[in-house]
Amino acid sequence: MRAPASNLPLVFDDVSLSAGATTILDRICLTIGLGAPTLVLGPNGAGKTSLLRLCMGLLSPTRGVVSWGGRIDGGPERRAILFQKPVMLRRSVAANIAYGLAHAGCPRGLRAQRTEELLDSVGLSALASRPARRLSGGEQQRLALARALARQPEILLLDEPTASLDPAATRFVEEIILATAHSGTKIIMASHDLGQVRRLAGDVVFLVHGRLFEHADASDFFDRPATPQAAAFIRGDLVL
Ligand SMILES: Nc1ncnc2c1ncn2[C@@H]1O[C@H](COP(=O)(O)OP(=O)(O)OP(=O)(O)O)[C@@H](O)[C@H]1O
Hints:
By secondary structure, the protein is an alpha/beta fold.
């Protein structure tokens, strides 16, 4: 059997996204390859969510081309996206994962074992039979991660997955994200939390008002920001 075609590199070639008269993303050129997590950073309204939706193929650019491993027509195979507020099915934690596995084409006979493995990987084994909607916010986010991982994605897109979590829950989710990255899944994640970006990023994509100001290794971005806007954001100044 032929190996599935890779989604990487993910390339934005002069990509703009508009809605009516509003320019949401403005002529973005960007190449994202294999490796440590890519963090998409920027103030509210910078265009982070829109960029992730383009990465997933949920939106089409108004101008320019998005390609995955040189292909522009690829379906969302081996890509998964997690939004800020995950939707839990009205059933148990384990059944939510089994649903994800079925959806991903996992053979019926393997689902019980894979469900156990995935629950274990996100620390939810003890809550397997609890109704998913009764989980805490942090637990729901971990369940959503497990459901996304059921697809065995090559690229996992995460939209501020810890935005409403406390520090302990955030840390738990970050550990899962790093373990997922170490196992070879490419993470592309939106955040506006500088501490989180320092903890997780291999490289940083910095957006303001839909424009790409920097794409750099995380250490270069923090130690030697190339634009006044990035320097101001890192200092904690308002970037308007
Ligand atoms: N369909 C749309 N029509 C008009 N404007 C839109 C549409 N989608 C997004 N926008 C606008 O584009 C800008 C970027 O939105 P987006 O959600 O991508 O930013 P973000 O960086 O993820 O923001 P936040 O950090 O607040 O979640 C915002 O000003 C938003 O209001």
